Amino acid sequence: MEALQKKAQELLTTCRANVVIGYGQGSDDKPRAIFVTDPAGADKLIFNDTCKQNLGVYLMKAEVKKLGKMGIFATKPVMRTVVLLASENQLTDIDVTVIGVNEDGSLVDFENLQALENHVKTITFEPDPADKAKIEAIEKMTVEERWAYWQDQLSKCFKCYACRSACPMCYCSRCTVECNQPQWIPVPSHHLGNFEWHMMRAMHLVGRCIECGECGRACPLDLPVHLLTQKMAADARKDFGWQAGMSLKLENPLSSFKPDDKESFIK
Amino acid sequence: MSFRNLMDFMGIDTRRVYFSWVSAAEGAKWAEVVNNVNKEIQKLGPYEAYQKLAWAGVE
User: Which residues make Cβ contacts (< 8 Å) with residue A192, sequence separation at least 6?
Assistant: First the structure.
């Protein structure tokens, strides 16, 4: 933790960052994101096992961006987030300095995004085993059971859009759901509207979800919305051999064409 | 492919969803696709699960 605070101080004093994004102490012993702009405030930074939130989401927020160059303490999911955002031309070396935080708390200072990409390629990422098991259980259900399961879960949704706000990949300043001429997605949170919203959100994350599970954690009703995007990520791995956030080159399966893409059901 | 998988995962009856690539110049193919869809859907009958969803949760 001391090394982390020192690093933040160093970034701020050497102007490698104007704002450092990290975890600080929140209420109820829970960590929260903090934004350190003054080297003297670096001692507020903490890091422990409970620091799970994907901080990458703040890299896309205008309020943080305007503070200047961002430094971020990146756990494994955040590293992939940064690589994915960079591949989509949302971040460059001018915008961000990444300090990797390993599971044991040791730090890796990445000189630039290329160094980050090289590092990301050497580590393995496994989706959460509990979530993987849940997805497999749903896959084993009959189509009627799946329909009933998702209706039961999604009918509770009241469209607070916390899943969208918590996701670093949902960075459009104007979302389709706020577009009302024409209105693609119904505004009321009736069952059909909820179904459409969650389907659209999952579709927009195909090949982009890095399986951090933040959407599910952000949900105030604990709906398993992250299973939808993680299922899409698992399919992208299976069908296209694609893992999001591993390369600075934009090769997302849905935005690139390859002659050997499968299309067995299109007649 | 992903969209079809997602619909299936959410419990939508994918037997009722058809994907086809038809050029504007392929009138005969278009007729064939529509006739085929019509025939298959008639066999399945009305999609009652979806009809129920459309009105569920509406006061």
Answer: A186, B53, B54, B56, B57
The answer to whether B25 faces chain A, any CB pair under 8 Å, is no
In this structure, CATH architecture of domain A129-240: Orthogonal Bundle (1.10)
Contact A253/B at CB under 8 A = yes
Label the pairing between strands A70-74 and A19-25: parallel
- Enumerate the domain spans of chain A: 2-120, 129-240
**ipTM exceeds 0.85:** yes
- Tens-level pLDDT at each residue, chain A (267 residues): 788 999 999 999 999 999 999 999 998 888 999 999 999 999 999 998 889 999 999 999 999 999 999 999 999 999 999 999 999 999 999 999 999 998 888 899 999 999 999 999 998 888 899 999 999 999 999 999 999 999 999 999 999 999 999 999 999 988 888 888 888 888 888 888 899 999 999 999 999 999 999 999 999 999 999 999 999 999 999 988 899 999 999 888 888 888 887 777 787
- Distance from first CA to last CA of chain A, Å, rounded? 58
Whole-model pTM? 0.90
Nearest-neighbour CA in chain B from A135: distance (Å): 9
A191 part of contact set with chain B, CB < 8 Å: yes
Separation in Å, CA of B5 to nearest CA in chain A: 8
